[in-house]
Amino acid sequence: MKNKKCFYNQKKTKYKKSRKGRLPKLEYRSNILKFGVFGLKALESGCISARQIEAARQAINRKIKRNGRVWVRIFPDLSITSKPIEVRMGKGKGAVSHWVARVGGGAILFEIDGIPKKLAVAALYTGSAKLPIKTLIIT
User: Fold this and answer.
1) How many domains does one find in the chain?
2) In sequence order, which residues have a C-beta less than 8 Å from that of residue 35 and are 6 or more positions away?
3) Nearest in space to 124 (alpha carbons), one of 73, 49, 50
4) pLDDT for 31-70, tens place per residue?
5) Which CATH number do you get for residue 101?
6) Is residue 110 one of the residues assigned to a domain?
7) Which of 10, 47, 51, 57 is a plausible cystine mate for 100, CB 3.0–4.6 Å?
């Protein structure tokens, strides 16, 4: 079986490798629902990898049986590099290993619309189990 490539993969960036930077403490821009009726909100800041976002999205879609609509409000635009094991110091920065999304506390991660409340809460709860940060289901 071939290794399935992740859905989220940056093709066009100005620079291939980026610096680490700092995580935002709180999110002031994307902290209210814009598209759906139910949402999954981050309670703490952290980095969420593209694989984790995709796993959460698939879990939510599977739970709602593809009824309604799901919006993913975050995108992994930060490249994380790593050097191979047992490589000496120096010789430049490592190759890009994966992509992550920087998430501030209060940011909306997923939104759902078009399904009953009980099913939406169950779906978002299932999706939140795939993420490495504490989350809250909001309406």
Assistant:
1) 1
2) 69, 71, 111, 113
3) 73
4) 999 999 999 999 999 999 999 999 999 999 999 998 999 9
5) 3.90.1170.10
6) yes
7) 47
